[in-house]
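Revision sheet: structure tokens.
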Amino acid sequence: MSSTLARYERIARFYDLLDLPFEYGRYRRLRPLLFRGLSGRILEAGVGTGRNMPFYPPGAGMVAIDLSRAMLARAEQRRAALGAAVELRQMDVTRLAFESGSFDAAVSTFLFCVLADELQEPALRELARVVKPGGEIRLLEYVRPQGRFRAAVARLWEPWMNWAYGAGFDRRTEAHARAAGLEIAETRFLVADIVKMITIRAG
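Predicted:
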């Protein structure tokens, strides 16, 4: 078991509590943006404890995956509490057990800032493979800020993020997408210069 997976297996019971200040201070207003305008069959990669479930598009055919059984167990509890229409499956984003072009879109929330560099291109290629040509892959991610003050704060914050979540600000997801031959349709910052939504066009 990788160290990152082992970490999430350990913290799953406490994850929502650990994340609570960020959830209500920042994330909750960003989550709906991931799904705006999306419809059809949608894949959520890295569902975690299911924090995105309240924002799933009405009528969408949602499938959500995570590598951690413990995190999926928490997501199952949230699905039951909300009555959310979503299929939960344990799966590695670098080896998706879906047919090519089987989704209209895919989303992930702070997944790629956890994935190691060598896993980024395989994961991006797999998401692009399972999304129909022309469909969107939307990634909500932390990036390293450029402003002097925020960069200094990020340097102080990053060791804790790495310890708690296995996450970092230096994953270069956009560069990995280009290296994988994928088209970046749009990038825009949603929180200052530290949280960005990256939209990739499949096919």
